[in-house]
Design goal:
The structure holds 2 protein chains of 2 kinds. Chain A is an all-beta fold. Chain A is built from no helices and 11 strands. Classes of the chains: A mainly beta, B mainly beta.
Chain lengths: 111, 118
């Protein structure tokens, strides 16, 4: 059983469209991270969310942590081809020191 | 500032052969991770070091995998003998944050070492 479930698994959209990807769990997380990974590279950290209900914005990317700290979403406005990549959520369960990753959402933005 | 450096980037070997991967973390980062990533999947933890101590190696297949982090800086991950199912990308990451803190999940990854076992 995957501790962090990401959906959708694949997403292909046209440049300029908006999209939301999700990261869900039945467990509570003390913090949650979002990473982006491009082919042939390692994941790169985008954001950390810690507080339930927290919303963080990074240019056209909006990250939200669920009130119960069990889920998170990433919304991209006016997607660009440069947003193409594998988006991974990762989190540390409350009371644990172990960082676990979801399987990721592979996003393709077509020009 | 230099990032996490890994070598080799690519390695092709025949099954039953040994292979080793090297990682140099970001200077000052006490925590070092080795992850395995299969195609289209998220990274899976193999081992985590705090300085030179392996604090979580529960997912490391110890019959064939070994790792060391002498002097608490560079690290080496070895597989002997390699099996076909070991073909994957091996990622090294380091972190400045201490375990148990809100930023403990903020990792800096290297580019990875892609292993192909024939």
């Amino acid at each position: 059983t995957q501790l962090l479930e990401q959906s959708p698994q694949f997403l292909s959209i046209q440049e300029g469209e908006n999209l939301t990807v999700y990261c869900n769990s039945s467990s509570v997380f003390s913090s949650l991270q979002w990473y982006r990974q491009e082919p042939g590279e390692g994941p790169v950290l985008l954001v950390t969310v810690v507080t339930g209900g927290e919303v963080k914005k990074l240019k056209r990317l909006t990250f939200q942590f669920g009130d119960a700290r069990k889920d998170s979403s990433l919304h991209i406005t006016a997607a660009q081809p440069g947003d193409t990549g594998l988006y991974l959520c990762a989190g540390i369960q409350g009371g644990s020191e172990k960082l676990v990753f979801g399987k990721g959402t592979k996003l393709t933005v077509n020009p | 500032e230099a990032g996490v450096v890994q070598s080799p980037r690519y390695k092709i070997i025949e099954k039953k052969q040994p292979v080793a991967f090297w990682c140099n973390p970001i200077s000052g980062h006490n925590t070092l991770y080795w992850y395995l990533q299969n195609l289209g999947q998220g990274p899976e933890l193999l081992i985590r070091y705090e300085n030179e101590e392996a604090v979580d190696d529960s997912q490391l297949p110890k019959d064939r995998f070994s790792a060391e982090r002498l002097k608490g800086v560079d690290s080496t991950l070895k597989i002997q003998p390699a099996e076909l199912g070991d073909s994957a990308v091996y990622l090294c990451a380091s972190s400045l944050a201490q375990a148990g803190t809100a930023r403990a999940g903020e990792l800096f990854f290297g580019e990875g070492s892609r292993l192909t076992v024939l």
